[in-house]
Design goal:
12 helices; globular; 44% helix; 8 strands
Length: 241
């Protein structure tokens, strides 16, 4: 069963679409690639690859628009605006999308987040910022030093948006909770892949005692949907009862 919901976000000041596939199971929130929308994962057959787990009632899959990624891809506004929008987008996930998922799931429960490319960055960011809301992140073919695509000086908005920036300073209860979460950093080493991005994140997570694992799938796996078709069902099968 597919259900679509849309509202005007108070954080990003633009429409937010949330799509759901399935009836029961652990909620899994998928982030699109850079400029993708909430139905991108379906169009590229990733949802179909998760079909057996959806049909078995193990997972309910959700996906939302890549609002900030789209603005970055088309160079919308100033660099400060684009950095502001990433921060606003992450807040919209925590304060709007997560409550919508909880309402649909008939009560709060931890959510698994996942994504590829810029989607991996967003999955990592929201888990590290709000470990009380998310249980694990599956980050595939991630691009994590996203400021290289935005340009301009680093702002406070970007500091709070990027785990590579804020995580080294994280302390207290949020860090203690994050240390009870898990991050998968999966990458191929084929065309357009850079597993070094995953290792850079691993060093930051390890320095803070956050459980994680880097998986290099090798040169036969490119920065393409067929790679993610294989990765995501495998990791979710391990993470979900």
């Amino acid at each position: 069963m597919k259900v679509t919901e849309q509202w005007q976000s108070d954080r990003t000041l633009r429409p937010m679409t949330l799509v759901r596939w399935g009836h029961y199971g652990v909620p899994v929130l998928l982030f699109p690639t850079a400029g993708g929308d909430a139905e991108e994962a379906e169009r590229h057959h990733l949802v179909a690859r998760l079909g057996p787990m959806i049909e078995a009632g193990r997972i309910k899959v959700y996906s939302c628009d890549s609002t900030a990624g789209r603005a970055m891809a088309v160079h919308e506004g100033s660099t400060e605006h684009r950095m502001w929008l990433f921060n606003a987008y992450h807040r919209a996930i925590a304060e709007e999308v997560v409550p919508a998922i909880h309402a649909d799931s008939r009560g709060p429960q931890p959510i698994v987040v996942a994504g590829a490319s810029i989607g991996a960055f967003n999955a990592l960011a929201v888990l590290c910022r709000w470990p009380n809301l998310f249980s694990a992140a599956v980050c595939m073919s991630g691009t994590y030093a996203v400021e290289q695509f935005i340009g301009g000086p680093i702002t406070d908005d970007w500091y709070f948006s990027s785990p590579l920036r804020f995580l080294p300073d994280l302390e207290g209860p949020a860090l203690e909770m994050l240390r009870r979460r898990f991050v998968v950093l999966a990458s191929g080493s084929g065309k357009w892949e850079d597993v070094g991005e995953a290792w850079a994140v691993e060093r930051v997570l390890a320095a803070k005692g956050v459980p994680n694992r880097v998986d290099d799938w090798g040169p036969g796996y490119d920065h393409e949907w067929p790679t993610w078709w294989e990765m995501l069902p495998l990791y979710l099968d391990d993470l979900v009862p």
